[in-house]
Amino acid sequence: MKTNAYAAQNATTSLSPFSFQRRDVGQHDVQIEILYCGVCHSDLHTVRGEWGGTTYPCVPGHEIVGRVVKVGAHVEKFKEGDTAGVGCMVDSCRTCANCKEDLEQFCEKGTIFTYNSPEKQTGGTTFGGYSDSIVVDEAFVLHIPQNLDLAATAPLLCAGITTYSPLRHNNVSKGQKVGVVGLGGLGHMAVKLAKGFGAHVVVFTTSSNKVEDALRLGADEVVNSKNADEMKKHLNSFHFILDTVSAQHDINAYLLLLKRDGNLTQVGVPAEPLPLQVGSLIFGRRSLSGSLIGGIKETQEMLDFCGEHNITSDIELIPIQNINEAYDRLLKSDVKYRFVIDMASLKQAL
Amino acid sequence: MKTNAYAAQNATTSLSPFSFQRRDVGQHDVQIEILYCGVCHSDLHTVRGEWGGTTYPCVPGHEIVGRVVKVGAHVEKFKEGDTAGVGCMVDSCRTCANCKEDLEQFCEKGTIFTYNSPEKQTGGTTFGGYSDSIVVDEAFVLHIPQNLDLAATAPLLCAGITTYSPLRHNNVSKGQKVGVVGLGGLGHMAVKLAKGFGAHVVVFTTSSNKVEDALRLGADEVVNSKNADEMKKHLNSFHFILDTVSAQHDINAYLLLLKRDGNLTQVGVPAEPLPLQVGSLIFGRRSLSGSLIGGIKETQEMLDFCGEHNITSDIELIPIQNINEAYDRLLKSDVKYRFVIDMASLKQAL
Q1: Domains and CATH numbers, chain B
Q2: What residues 167-186 of chain B have any CB closer than 8 A to a CB of chain A?
Q3: How confident is the model over A142-172, as pLDDT tens digits?
Q4: Is the pTM of this model over 0.90?
Q5: What ipTM did this prediction achieve?
Q6: What are phi and psi of A297, to 5 degrees?
Q7: Residue A291 forms contact with B (CB below 8 Å)
């Protein structure tokens, strides 16, 4: 069916109105009327071709929340009228070892991402959530807890799972001291989730104007990471640190804050290599890991956890007509803490 | 008692004969007549002051094997005539969390190393194994399996445990594919131990003249890490990689060879930071760790394992008079694979 959207036509132009055909609803497919779509920094990287490999036109968006309007004959998990979510993935091979272990984000045949991936069913390219409708195999569609604000839930589909997964994988639990480096879209979710797990949460920031906000979001302590004396007080004391910073920074300073056998996981992807002092790892048998979103099963688990703990993202709701301005503000970290597009605005525009 | 040794008097002179007083044998002490002492690269770094903080005169040596000649009144584990070993540590606080967990190498009050550490009992500095005798609390003395060649066992006390500990900590076991980067003193032990655990062992080297030797030592495959095509064949295939290289090198190339959730552990300590591409960790949820020797309990476990599997180091036995030449050769990696000092030579010299 005809779908209205915003797309980038090449790496250098602004996003602008675009329409295309979604595939027909297959036997296992769910068609979702998109109500809200979060704005992730990956959207910006992709539309501007900063990661290479962007196919244009490109319709970004992978923090999708909406209402089921049609289901295929064999769909079992969803019915018309359900609220539903779609995150970063819409398909995978489902047969490799990683898929079998519910880690479709590491599909050995190549995860089918929500946008800018080859679409199995059509031979075209997947188009994301800056659009009024999407058709997805029910295996990659999530249930949204009824108590959560829908707009503020959208960012959980990427920012939420990206922080939930490493916290869970590292068994973050009650009484542990957990650090969060950087207070942006990912960092602010990490604070809420780590608090949800019962941890003592310390936020590291270089922006003094974020201190109050960090405490409001639930942080127990805030450390100015540029202040060597403040940092020194926390040496050898953290079970786990989640580093959400995608700019160049000194990870060694954070590694030294880990206890013996502590882990620091990076979810930000700096463009340039980070200089790693191996001694920071050797003394204390510490480890440094990476983590990428989470599998579908874990994403549902995260949504359910957020429902139970009433956790959503702090958002700024925008009409899609403001998306290019939002990108400019994103580059200046001028958002608390996630832009979400109100997709009703797409209808108004037409 | 008077002890003959070789010492460095400052950072720039050669090692030369030196004598000093060992403390009297205390109630929990064991006095060991040193028969063999391995030559570790740390000895060279310390005597030349390359790590800072060297107290002179410095008697290095922490791969000690010998015979018990005297025991204190309360010694329970050793008797006169036993063969015994001493590794990198001779004491620790024994009360901190790490000591209580048998990880004295991470003692929170500061591990007392076998040389160049403050000696509790005397207020002086510990002197190591380039000497004819040592007095050590029995809690830090190891039993040597009877079937092993004593000279070739000495390097197990540092090179052995440094490689055994991370292999064990990462649960290396039968059928797993394990990589060893660098074939030197540490690397050649890692090959033997990983084979002992039943792993499929792949050695990475840049020296074509080490291929034959790697296979002789038990490696199943040898990869020239400078050959991109060879490296590519091993992408996403390793459970675990032990990196023993202490020179600058591209760890990202090895991280990409790990399977999902695979770990690379560094035991070499490059002086300069290693450039780390975070993407190498994020795609595959891989991790990078450090490891430092092992605790006393694990060191005994390692020696017992080596006894059962008849594993020792490949050594070149030297008289202590050749130690300075040995250091020069060490810097050129001209040793297969560990120099061991025959301490009988110390008597001949006098």
Answers
A1: 2-158+314-349 (3.90.180.10), 159-290 (3.40.50.720)
A2: 169
A3: 999 999 999 999 999 999 999 999 999 999 9
A4: yes
A5: 0.94
A6: -60, -45
A7: yes
